[in-house]
Amino acid sequence: DTTLLPDPRDTLQHVFGFPDFRGVQRQVVDRVLNGQSTLAVMPTGAGKSLTYQLPAVMLEGTCIVISPLIALMHDQLRSARANGVRAATLTSADADWRETMDAFRAGTLDLLYVAPERASQPQFLDFLTSAPVALFAIDEAHCVSEWGHDFRPDYRGLRPLLDSFPEVPRLALTATADHHTRGDILTQLGIPEDGLIVAGFDRPNIRYTIRHRDNPVRQIARLMEDEPGPGIVYAPTRRKVEDMAVKLAAATGRDVLPYHAGLPPEERAANQAAFVASEDMVIVATVAFGMGIDKPDVRFVAHAGIPKSIEAYYQETGRAGRDGDPSQAVMFWGAEDFAIARQRLGEMGDARQEGERKRLDALAALVETPACRRAILLRHFGEDPPEQCGNCDNCLAPPEVIDATELARKLLSA
Ligand code: ADP
Ligand code: MG
């Protein structure tokens, strides 16, 4: 009975130190406190973690958080503990399993983070029956759907666990789900259709620009001259990351460091830490970079080639301007990017191919449109935006569209 609980806003202020809820956070928290299963689709940076961390503090029992990456879990763990929330992880990287399991059994844990492959094992189910569970939070829930852009079969194995606790609410969270993927998440995780809450996706302070690539180093160097603040450049391969970091540093004289999964872990961590602390550094990275990084003042995100999908584009560009100040997202693309992506399609199984093809077509439509970029993005996420945003390349400098009928008339009358 939630009437016995204190006002969530008191907990928000006293435990988390925020004056107020943002956007749909309150709606999501209220549902969870009422024991109602929910799918919250909220953009990156909207504050999804709070929607389970706060109920976890308020409710009796532990909130089990399913999260796909150990690095993400440890980031979350650090920030939860910084707020005085009692949190732990159960991963292969942890040495304190016994303490964590004892704390769960004693009911002194608010949050317990686990990976889906562990959560779906029968031993984990047995373990959970030893103390009260308050909530299941399923982060990056699009991973449960083959329609999503990052399908992980281990997420499918969660259902028996969830169904073993029919009285425990489920909160699925994602930043990146189109209409089809949302329906799939609801079905796969057993969440009722009226449990869907979608937050606004518009990021009005981000200016979107999409250009043909001719000389990417020169093009990005020019962008860096306009934007002296911190920036992220996404490049498609490790080799291009390294090459570009060196060339951009030489071309601009600015501090530029590389980041990709092939670097020694210490160097990767050091480069990331330097970037987070810096007010003017540029990091050139593969898409491995960015998840779980909380840097509010990124002034630009550049893509030196096409991203994987509109969802990926939105998520990657969404790392710009979280502080609300004017920021830029600039993509430099070439026809060969699409040719390579389509070639890869041919090497996939039938089931995945169809989804990938649709994603690629949607991305091509965004890249090639003479119309408002933001309108296309927002429509992709199920919103009904105005025709013109006034803050993308096509709105600011409308491209000349050749009218075929007009052209034919002129040719005939000449
Ligand atoms: P997401 O997972 O949706 O990308 P996070 O949960 O990582 O977002 O939160 C993004 C940032 O917003 C974090 O720095 C978090 O502390 C902050 N934040 C969350 N809720 C609020 C709030 N109500 N008021 C102010 N800042 C908030
Ligand atoms: Mg998150």
TrEMBL record:
Its cofactor is Mg(2+); Zn(2+). GO terms for molecular function: 3'-5' DNA helicase activity; ATP binding; DNA binding; four-way junction helicase activity; hydrolase activity; metal ion binding. It is an enzyme of class 5 (isomerase). Residues 29-195 form the Helicase ATP-binding domain. GO terms for cellular component: bacterial nucleoid; cytoplasm; replisome. It comes from the Bacteria. Transmembrane segments: none annotated. One of its GO terms (biological process) is SOS response. It catalyses: Couples ATP hydrolysis with the unwinding of duplex DNA by translocating in the 3'-5' direction. Residues 216-364 form the Helicase C-terminal domain. Keywords: ATP-binding, DNA damage, DNA recombination, DNA repair, DNA-binding, Helicase, Hydrolase, Isomerase, Metal-binding, Nucleotide-binding, Zinc. Belongs to the helicase family. RecQ subfamily. This is DNA helicase RecQ. The lineage of its organism: Bacteria, Pseudomonadati, Pseudomonadota, Alphaproteobacteria, Sphingomonadales. The gene is recQ.
